[in-house]
């Protein structure tokens, strides 16, 4: 008779996949935490905000400004600055942590799961609509429009060639060439 090993096979890939899907975070030394996207598309180091808060903020940023041609890494980069700002501003930290908690509470009430775990974009947007008038929502919405669209890597995704002021303006550089706008 053949003996079968029934112990769970733990590989690096399975560990990271299941660990990230459940928690979305991995702790490291020095008081910092590495926040990892459950799908493995991005990672960031956080020190002041909870990793779950950062994961939720990335998902919220994507829902506020959805672009299929942009990966989650661009949204993570836009949200990443909140961690440093929260370390210097306790009021901002409280606003973000409490806002994400309220967002998760609203999501739990409607879908019985935290906001970032809701699969359908339309369902997440429905939860966001219930919070449109809150200072938390207004802060994130206002900050993300700048943080997301001020990334030169994002400009390239939309075909925007960038500022022309340092090159003498658009007059002699194709001022009427707006092909990039057609695809947006």
Structure notes:
Strand 2 (33-36) and strand 3 form a beta hairpin. Helices cover 54% and strands 6% of the residues. The termini are far apart. The longest helix has 22 residues, at 90-111. The chain has helices at 12-22, 51-64, 72-88, 90-111, 121-129, 135-149, 152-158, 179-183; strands at 25-27, 33-36, 43-46. The protein has a three-stranded antiparallel β-sheet with strand order 1-2-3. With 184 residues, the protein is mainly alpha-helical. It contains eight helices and three strands. It has a domain at 49-156. Residues 1-23 form the signal peptide. This is Twin-arginine translocation pathway signal. Keywords: Signal. InterPro entries: TAT_signal, TAT_signal_bac_arc.
Produce a short descriptive summary:
The protein is mainly α and 184 residues long.
Keywords:
single chain, 184 residues, mainly alpha, 3-stranded antiparallel beta sheet, 8 helices, 3 strands, globular
